[in-house]
Amino acid sequence: MEATRNFDPDNFLIVDARTFEQLKVGEIFRAPSRTLTDAHAAAFQTVSCDNHPVHYDDVWAKKHGHKAPVVHGLQVLAFTAPGATMFPHVIGEVFIAFTELTCQFLKEVNSGDTLYPALEIISLTPQGATGVVETAATVHNQRGELVLSGTHKYLLKTTSKS
């Protein structure tokens, strides 16, 4: 059991961590696809306290031009969380903060839709001992339609000491 005696939780990595300088524009970090159910929508409604009938009342939603109750936009946005992808594992200990996001809701999402979230690095801005990573955040549905588009910004440590 030599392996057990030398086990160090700090070295238990899912992937080798990289530095800010090792990241590349164009890298994509995908999250697993998810098919949304009424249970997901109900759970989010409970957590968010958003009780608008567009999210749970089929008759109300259809009366107002929707094909079914609409999944909360913030729930769709939540699927772009960096922790849903490999990104936090890739950056390891250099992460400082998630500093900014933008978001546009482009298409209606309903229970039964399958979502495909992804983050793509679109810029890397070194700032001495820190650097800003900007990603495009996208969510497509099972029909290939872009339902959400936005950006995230993260502040990371760099190996630079200036």
TrEMBL record:
Record InterPro entries: HotDog_dom_sf, MaoC-like_dom, MCH/BMMD
Span of domain MaoC-like: 25-134
A Pfam family this chain is assigned to: MaoC_dehydratas
UniProt name for this protein: MaoC family dehydratase
Record organism: Mucilaginibacter pallidiroseus
